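A student in our group prepared the protein record below, which I am reviewing. Thanks in advance; the entry in question is below.
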Amino acid sequence: MSGVDLALIVAEPSRSGLNDLERLVETARQFRTRLAVCVNKWEVSPTTTHEIERFFCAEEGLPFVGKIPYDKTHPPPSTPGKASPRSTAPHVTP
């Protein structure tokens, strides 16, 4: 994480995602890297998304920059032989 102006952490709204977020923040701070956080597939767990935004980011002094909606039109990246169609999902919600 050295040599960057800012690291954007894209967190998953789950207990393991929150644990990953905590570890990434700790690592980035060792490199003195500025951080921002957003949540991917936020509708999967609005409660955990709220916890990340209102509690974790607020307590850690991290900017929360948005929520990325789950887009079912995209196949998983590991789908063999399938090109990813254009997204029809709305833009990231601040």
Observations:
- The beta strands are 7-11, 35-40, 64-68.
- Helices lie at 15-30, 46-60.
- The longest helix spans residues 15-30.
- The longest strand covers residues 35-40.
